[in-house]
Amino acid sequence: MANSAQARKRARQADARNKHNASMRSMMRTSIKRVRQAIEAGDQAAANEVFKKASSVIDRVADKNIIHKNKAARHKSRLASAIKAMAS
């Protein structure tokens, strides 16, 4: 347990930050799942629309250093290639 006032405040801040980051990470995962569901349904137009929103969410999370930029790029690349593979 934190003893000083500063340490108690830091613990509160860390807890709040952890909850916010977990929320953002969850939002990103949900947006990725929506793209995958659209791909599995075979609807390319819907997949493209959802992918546009998902890539925005992924970029936002990466800009806040919740995930690494390379991880964001990897997610976006794999989703884009899966959508592109639907056409053929």
From TrEMBL:
UniProt keywords, alphabetically: Ribonucleoprotein, Ribosomal protein, RNA-binding, rRNA-binding
Record region (Disordered): 1-27
Entry GO terms, CC: ribosome
Signal sequence bounds: none
Keyword Ribonucleoprotein part of the UniProt annotation: yes
Role noted for this protein: Binds directly to 16S ribosomal RNA.
InterPro entries, alphabetized: Ribosomal_bS20 (IPR002583), Ribosomal_bS20_sf (IPR036510)
UniProt-recorded name of the protein: Small ribosomal subunit protein bS20
Family according to the record: Belongs to the bacterial ribosomal protein bS20 family.
